[in-house]
Amino acid sequence: MNKLLDYLSKEHIDFKLHHHPKVLTLNDVRSELNFEETRLVKTLVFKVGEKFILVALRGLDLLDYKKLSAYLKINRSELTKPESEEIENMLGFDIGGIPPFTKNKDAKIVYDLKVKQIERMYCGSGKNTETLEVNTQQIISLFKPDIAYISK
Hints:
Structural class: alpha/beta
Distance between the termini: 35 Å
CATH architecture: Alpha-Beta Complex
Shape: globular
Strand content: 25-35%
Number of helices: 5
Number of strands: 8
């Protein structure tokens, strides 16, 4: 088990780990795995300066960059996508397995308001060969992400 999952266990978070072949995109998840699409949560990673921003959306929803930028009180051009290697090195997550939470205190976490509607979400575990099924409200209580309307 990885450190993040060890932490969830220590905090008595109710989760189940699903092992599967490597997935990199939401389309991979949709075609390879038999999860309810309405419970899928994807995590997008951005940077503003040196700070990482993890953005969680329902799997089929699209990010509204204008709303996110306004919420963060930045110009849209300040929101950049880090390289895959930087995400893996700085956050410790595989591409295709990024969870919508982190213990990295230098990262900001923002959930779209619609994610709160999901009782148990399927999301990244940190590895692209494992998907986490977890109680959404427990994750919100533990990691305290910002919640904003940022989807289209």
